[in-house]
Write a structure and sequence with these properties.
The structure is a homodimer of 122-residue chains. Chain A is built from six helices and two strands; from the N terminus they run ααααββαα. With 122 residues, chain A is of the alpha+beta class. Chain A has a two-stranded antiparallel sheet with strand order 1-2. The longest helix of chain A is centred in the last third of the chain and has 14 residues. Chain A is globular. At the A-B interface, α1, α2 and α6 of A face α1, α2 and α6 of B.
């Protein structure tokens, strides 16, 4: 099932994708989900230091747009976990391209151990 | 030559790339440069309707960060043209991944004739 995009200004696939994921923090949360992070406090600990209100907003956005799902934590029913849907998983190619470009074109880049296995893998 | 990144919060290649190009309008201007648009008024005519002040700021940002170059227009010395540097051209893989994801995962997506030959090509 494809994600429904409302009120877009353009039908270009790049522009339409950017209407959904054209934001740094959204893509960093997707990166974390791709490496298996599931809980709010795990996202908060990522090296970029996302603020709690931005994290809440971006997680809600991903769920509302069908890229992530929110489920009760099996270890603690009062908490929730997040995971990517099939559509969200599809963004791995975008994050991989971003990582490859950064490694090839920018100085002072290195892979954090949390992300070595997934985002940077061929 | 690699682009120098200052004041980054993280050394992750995804996060570092997003510090430079983690913005919708920046990536849309890069998309336009990738298909050969060169002049301010050509970028303004793109279907997303970028505002002049945002376009000016994003072009300046791309030049300052070594992703684009600004040269006098050979047809009219009072005007300038923009083109991607080698580092900027490298972003084609990111835009291609965005387009592929949009085509596969989002509804109501179609390729504008301006972009059919480049961004969506294999």
């Amino acid at each position: 099932m494809k994600v429904n995009v409302q009120d877009q200004r353009s039908c270009c696939p790049v522009a339409t994708s950017l209407d959904i994921v054209g934001d740094k923090w959204t893509l960093l949360v997707i990166r974390d989900l791709l490496v298996g992070k599931q809980r709010f406090d795990e996202f908060l600990k990522s090296p970029e230091g996302i603020a709690t209100n931005i994290l809440s907003q971006r997680l809600r956005w991903l769920v509302e747009n069908g890229l992530a799902q929110r489920t009760p934590d099996p270890k603690d029913g009062r908490k929730v976990t997040y995971s990517l849907t099939e559509q969200g998983e599809g963004l791995k190619i975008v994050l991989k391209a971003m990582a490859d470009w950064g490694m090839n074109s920018l100085k002072n880049v290195q892979i954090h151990p949390d992300y070595a296995s997934s985002v940077s893998a061929k």
